[in-house]
């Protein structure tokens, strides 16, 4: 056995319910349902995590707080792991804004990491702030021979992009398979310095499921 990095999407927010592009920090809070999701996630963990981290966004901090209450492990806020920043699309809920974001987001997965929404981040910007954090967690907690789980509460769009880049899961799988609130992506470090994906939401390898894209939650 070896240690795992478990990326957790935050609980449901008012923005998720409204299908809003809500990316700026601190962002909107959890709904009552989102709080219940976070409490249930913490209560259902099979083991106490080695460490617990979250982004600076309010929804991630609240989710991590409920996990902290359930496990007794103090949650630490990390810089650089907030959601993809959508610029001029911020706060919008319409079909045109969703389509623009999804076009850019799918372009990143296909390799065009310099594409961006007006006023927003490029894919390279997202990776430039995320990957050093993942590397630090690996070198601190997931060295060869280590065991246990490191939990990181973050955001759906960012964690899907980062996980595809780290593990090479198929493009169509990564772009089409959104994550529900408090669903996880489980990563395990390989001896060669890479990562394997053990779970993506409710899917396990091989990741060849041909799901159709959904706009239920643009950030999921």
Describe the structure in your own words.
The chain has 7 helices and 6 strands, in the order βααβαβααβααββ. It has 220 residues and is of the alpha/beta class. It has a single domain (4-200), classed as Rossmann fold. Strands 3-2-4-1-5-6 form a 6-stranded mixed beta sheet, sandwiched between helices. The two termini are 30 Å apart. The model has no long low-confidence stretch (mean pLDDT 94).
Helix residue percentage: 25-40%
* Percent strand: 5-15%
Rg to the nearest angstrom?
16 Å
What is the architecture at the second tier of CATH? 3-Layer(aba) Sandwich
- The secondary structure category is alpha/beta
Number of domains: 1
Number of strands: 6
- Average pLDDT, to the nearest integer? 94
Strand order of the largest sheet: 3-2-4-1-5-6
Specify the CATH homologous superfamily: Phosphoglycerate mutase-like
How large is the count of helical segments? 7
Shape: globular
Kindly, what is the distance between the CA atoms of the first and last residues, rounded to a whole number of angstroms?
30 Å
List low-confidence stretches. none
Which properties best describe this structure?
Rossmann fold, 220 residues, alpha/beta
Give a quick precis of the structure.
This protein has 220 residues and is of the alpha/beta class.
Task: Please write out the topology.
Elements: E1 4-9, H1 14-17, H2 32-43, E2 51-54, H3 58-71, E3 75-77, H4 95-109, H5 123-141, E4 149-154, H6 156-167, H7 171-176, E5 184-189, E6 195-200
Parallel strand pairs: 1-4, 2-3, 2-4
Antiparallel strand pairs: 1-5, 5-6
